[in-house]
Design goal:
- By secondary structure, the protein is α/β, with parallel strands linked by helices.
- The chain has one domain (11-267): Rossmann fold (3-Layer(aba) Sandwich), CATH 3.40.50.300.
- It contains 9 helices and 12 strands.
- The chain has helices at residues 3-8, 28-31, 52-65, 79-89, 93-98, 109-122, 150-156, 161-177, 205-208, and strands spanning 20-21, 36-37, 41-46, 70-74, 102-106, 144-148, 181-187, 211-219, 225-234, 244-249, 252-260, 266-267.
- Strand 8 and strand 9 form a beta hairpin.
- The termini are far apart.
- The structure holds adenosine-5'-triphosphate and magnesium ion.
């Protein structure tokens, strides 16, 4: 294991324990201990414009660089725009697509919700049914699935949260059975783990996921704005628990594990 050498070129994958993987994001991997267990479902939470999509695209690029297959499911931005964002992070973006390492596909959340609801009513809403998530391509076996975002899917379900929860339980079960790692974006109006009262649509997924990474919009007392990131949970892994600085720049995303967000800042 030559961890030092691999860190020097921005990747810590060689330092990951067997059956674990890293994100490829400098600094974040340092906080991830022995790495993310393969097959884990990790939520990426954050407010509007906090950097959730860019973070997931950076992870997608890292997986493709290491020859792994990635399915990016967008329920929000069109494919063309996502490819453009990805190209700012990785000049090989189009090559990954043409060599079928990366499938970037836009779905309509309402269509998905309707098909799921139809399946659930056929199965009398029982949890025992074993439907594969209806909208996964059948001709592509990904190592990694990214969903942008669960929030769009949950709001497409007609009213009740319970159907979304049933669907999510099945999705998590399917990903686990197929040993597919996943990063699932969840938009939150307010960071949900900083003492805020009340609950948001789709919050139940926090308990189903193996890990949670939160991105914060940071407001410094002097009015300056920045970004913070925290690994809130990762089952089976000793993580560094603190909120640290993150930057999105022309050279991609960087996390600064030694630069904690000072007290006195407001996190939104
Ligand atoms: N190449 C870049 N250099 C610097 N900043 C960038 C770059 N690309 C994107 N950003 C910034 O990153 C921010 C986060 O964008 P992103 O789309 O990832 O947020 P998001 O959390 O997915 O937002 P939403 O909730 O609207 O989906 C943007 O506001 C933009 O200012
Ligand atoms: Mg986004």
């Amino acid at each position: 294991m030559d961890g030092k050498k691999s860190q020097a070129n921005g990747s810590k994958d060689a330092a990951a324990e067997a059956g674990h993987v890293f994100t490829g994001i400098p600094g974040l991997d340092k906080m991830l201990g022995k790495g993310i267990p393969v097959g884990s479902s990790v939520l990426i939470e954050g407010g509007p414009g906090s950097g959730k999509t860019m973070l997931c695209l950076a992870i997608a690029s890292h997986y493709c660089k290491t020859g792994k297959k990635v399915l990016y499911m967008s329920f929000e931005e069109p494919e063309k725009r996502l490819v453009e964002h990805l190209e700012t992070l990785d000049k090989n973006a189009k090559k990954y697509i043409s060599s079928d390492l990366l499938r970037l596909k836009r779905f309509n959340a309402l269509d998905v919700a309707r098909s799921v609801e139809a399946l659930l009513s056929e199965a009398k809403k029982e949890l025992l049914i074993d439907v594969n998530p209806v909208f996964f391509p059948t001709d592509f076996k990904p190592d990694l699935v990214l969903m942008d975002s669960l929030t769009s899917i949950s709001s497409a379900f007609s009213g009740e949260d319970s159907r979304f929860r049933i669907y999510m339980e099945q999705l998590f079960r399917y990903l686990e059975k197929e040993n597919i790692s996943s990063f699932l974006i969840r938009e939150v109006a307010n960071p949900s783990h900083t003492g805020r009262q009340g609950s948001e649509l789709g919050e139940a997924v926090s308990f189903l996921s193996d890990g949670i990474i939160i991105i914060y919009n940071v407001l410094h007392p002097g009015g300056e704005r920045g970004t913070g990131i925290e690994i809130l949970k990762l089952r089976g892994v000793a993580i560094e628990r603190k909120i640290v600085k993150m930057k999105i720049g022309m050279d991609g995303i960087t996390v600064y594990p030694n630069e904690q967000i000072p007290s006195g800042c407001t996190l939104t």
